[in-house]
Amino acid sequence: MREQQPERGHRSGRRAAEGNAARAPRHEAVGRYRPATAGAGTSGAGTTAQLPAQAAATALTATRSAASAQRRGGILNAIIGVIGELLITAGIVVGLFIVWQVYWTDLGANRDQAQQIETVNKQWGDPRGATKVGTPRTDAPPAADHVNRTGDLEGIIYIPRFGADWRYTVKYGVDLEAVVDTGSFGHYPDTQYVGEVGNYAITAHRQTYGAAMRDVPELQPGDPIIVQTKNAYYVYKVGEHEVVPPTQVGVLAPVPNKPEEAPTQRILTITTCHPPFVSSDRWITYATLDHWVDAAEGAPAELVK
Fold first, then answer.
1. Could you give the CA distance from residue 122 to residue 94 in angstroms, rounded to a whole number?
2. How far is CA 28 from CA 18, 20, 31, 122, 244, in A?
3. Least buried of 132, 154, 166, 226, by fewest C-beta within 10 Å?
4. H or E segment to which residue 226 belongs
């Protein structure tokens, strides 16, 4: 019996060890996934559950921000597009206006002038087709008709420096619509008539509506300016130029810029705008009567080809 006690003690110890081992916690290998069980700690499980929700919220916020930015960008692009279209339209309108103002009015005025001059030349004669040169005379020229209604014809002006075909009508008055914008030179009503002692002052456009005086800077001292009437040709010679503000009306005095003096010369004054397209000043050309030619005897040598 005593020999068996150790065996029972040994078996009891083994069963106790086995029981303790069964009750001891089992250690999982590092890295092995073990799903959480119900009733386990809530902190880890809550964090894990919140991750998808936070990601979804972040994605939704980003989507909304992108959509908002896209809407703002779309509105801005639309505004820029409208402004661009308006600027293009405005540019086209301005371009068309410039074409009309600069070129179309020139074509219309020059066409009308050519028709009017052709009619007048049939009555007075065309010096460009003349074969006889009239005698230059320096005695008192014949008085021109004193027309006094705006738009009445006074004569035809020629400036050979501007070309053999350069010629325009001269009419009474300086009304834009009735006279100057038709391509004609306008005669200032309060100044003398062609050929008279004093100041025969006329005006014409430098830009648009025929642009008769476009090349005024090319005029040189001594260049002839001829005014044809029914009975005579009045040949003036260019003296000098000056540029003045529009308010300097003294250029229209019987003695230009010296209104207190009595005139002794037969002066021609031509006014036009300066500079082109701006017209802030006036370009003034002065000429003095050199001689005249009786239309019945022929045309001035300056006009006969």
1. 41
2. 19, 18, 8, 126, 108
3. 132
4. strand 224-228
Nearest to 204 by CA among 164, 157, 250: 157
Tokens standing for 142?
Answer: 């014949």
Mean pLDDT of the 31-37 span: 44
Cβ atoms 215, 282 nearer than 8 A:
no
Distances (CA, A) of 275 to 1, 98, 203, 278, 283: 145, 17, 15, 6, 8
CA–CA gap between residue 89 and residue 205 (Å, rounded): 30
Secondary structure element (H or E) that encloses residue 127, with its range = none
How confident is the model over 71-90, as pLDDT tens digits? 666 787 888 888 887 888 87
Query: Over the stretch 179-204, which tens digit does the pLDDT of each residue have?
Result: 999 999 999 999 999 999 999 999 99
Q: What is the pTM of this model?
A: 0.70
For the chain, the structural domain boundaries read: 122-303
55-58 long-range contacts, CB within 8 A, separation 24+: none
Active-site residue identified among 27, 146, 187, 205: 205
Nearest to 283 by CA among 293, 295, 274, 296: 274
Q: Which CATH class is domain 122-303?
A: mainly beta
CB-CB contact of 136 with 300 (8 Å): yes
Catalytic residue among 187, 273, 274, 291: 273
Mean pLDDT, residues 134-151 taken together: 97
Which residue in 184, 157, 162 sits closest to 173, CA to CA? 184
Active site residue 273: yes
Q: Tell me: the pLDDT tens digits for 234-267?
A: 999 999 999 999 999 999 999 999 999 999 999 9
What's the DSSP call for residue 144?
P
